[in-house]
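Whiteboard transcription, Tuesday session. T.W. wrote the structure tokens on the left side:
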């Protein structure tokens, strides 16, 4: 039975970022347990945009959770985005830096944008709302500053893994067992590993490994498609993340001729909430395509790639990051509200701080799993 100080379950951005920061803290004895990455089992390698903000406009968080929560979420986004950009520079990963734009033709959303933008600006985030005067249709857009990038994320994850050069057990974890002196991690092939601390960064796999999270994390089905277009549109600039119609459509411009887009989840049963699997829906792809064509007056190719997958949201729509309330030797992170690359990167920094120091400067209490518990400690 092999023993480590820390076992990290998952090889997506959350797991690898945790490993990266553990190494910086000089914690050398850790390993990864997770099958080989592919589009279906690792959400991190999907569409490849990174943004400070979540897909929902910030006013939604302010209304639902208050200003402090919104500030903490943006602060976490800033830390994760900055860490991600440092990693990209360190490993010379192909990327395009861009901006986040929210776009609408609805007067009501334009009014909401004005509220959100003014809140952002008064909290130190450069943000403005403008009207696009080109063409015949009215298009209001909110610019959230230079806070987005499209990244060759598969390449980044490979570089991080190679740089860490830690043992990888390419297996699925079926359960963890906690004992007073150690935690055992049991895989589907019957391997048992032990550690003092286990980081559960397995995204969709979290609910099986930590059954207490079953009711806290809610599945959402989603999909993306890649299209080609003739370049030249000012919004369709590489690196930009475009969120249209209350973020019901998202578009990540990956090069001067290609974009990846998704959304239109309202076309799914229950908008994809609590789906047990994600299936590709051609109606969604064609609706997304039509909406982009009409918004930007461009012609898109047939989809060149498509992928359906499940995402997880916390039941209260705030990321869940930190030690578990019933055993602080088990740490987890998920529920990134559509900004998994950025917030997963920040989560890895925060989880490693918990392991090294017993507390985290990066991850504030509002994100800790214990907020979902009504019993006292
Ligand atoms: C359609 C779609 C597109 C998206 N696009 C973007 C985007 O462009 N930018 C963005 O920021 N966010 C995006 N997101 C969200 C984002 O991808 C996720 O929030 C984020 O990648 C989660 O990262 P993670 O490391 O926690 O999990 P993952 O990247 O999913 O990694 C999970 C890891 O755990 C492993 N694992 C799972 N179960 C087990 C188990 N039982 N045992 C062992 N290992 C296990 C997996 O193999 C994998 O290695 C998108 C989501 C969807 C649904």
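and on the right, the sequence the group agreed on:
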């Amino acid at each position: 039975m092999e023993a480590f100080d820390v076992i990290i379950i998952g090889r997506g951005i959350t797991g690898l970022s945790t490993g990266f920061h553990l190494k910086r803290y000089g914690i050398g004895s850790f390993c990864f347990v997770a099958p080989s990455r592919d589009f279906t089992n690792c959400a991190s390698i999907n569409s490849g945009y990174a943004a400070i903000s979540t897909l929902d406009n910030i006013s939604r968080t302010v209304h639902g959770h208050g200003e402090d929560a919104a500030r903490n979420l943006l602060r976490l986004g800033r830390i994760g985005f900055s860490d991600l950009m440092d990693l990209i520079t360190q490993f010379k990963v192909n990327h395009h830096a861009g901006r986040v734009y929210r776009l609408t033709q609805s007067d009501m959303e334009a009014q909401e944008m004005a509220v959100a933008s003014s809140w952002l600006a008064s909290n130190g985030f450069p943000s403005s709302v403008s009207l696009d005067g080109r063409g015949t249709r009215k298009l209001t857009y909110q610019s959230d500053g230079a806070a987005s990038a499209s990244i060759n994320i598969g390449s980044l994850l490979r570089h991080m893994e190679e740089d860490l050069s830690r043992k990888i057990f390419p297996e699925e974890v079926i359960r963890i067992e906690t004992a007073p002196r150690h935690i055992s991690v049991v895989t589907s092939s019957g391997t048992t590993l032990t550690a003092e601390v286990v980081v559960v960064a397995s995204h969709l796999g979290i609910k099986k490994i930590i059954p207490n999270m079953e009711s806290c994390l809610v599945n959402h089905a989603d999909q993306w498609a890649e299209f080609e277009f003739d370049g030249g549109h000012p919004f369709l600039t590489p690196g930009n993340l475009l969120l249209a119609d209350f973020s019901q459509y998202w578009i990540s411009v990956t090069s001067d001729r290609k974009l990846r887009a998704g959304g239109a989840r309202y076309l799914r049963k229950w908008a994809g909430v609590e789906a047990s699997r994600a299936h590709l829906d051609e109606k969604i792809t064609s609706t997304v395509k039509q909406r982009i064509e009409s918004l930007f007056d461009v012609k898109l190719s047939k989809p060149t790639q498509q992928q359906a997958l499940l995402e997880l949201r916390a039941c209260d729509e705030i990321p869940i990051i930190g030690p578990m309330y019933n055993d602080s030797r088990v740490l987890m992170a998920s529920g990134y509200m559509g900004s998994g690359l950025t917030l997963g990167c920040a989560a890895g920094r925060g989880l490693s701080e918990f392991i090294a120091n017993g507390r985290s400067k990066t991850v504030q209490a509002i994100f800790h799993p214990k907020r979902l518990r009504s019993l006292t400690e």
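Someone added at the bottom: Residues 4 and 259 are 42 Å apart (CA to CA).
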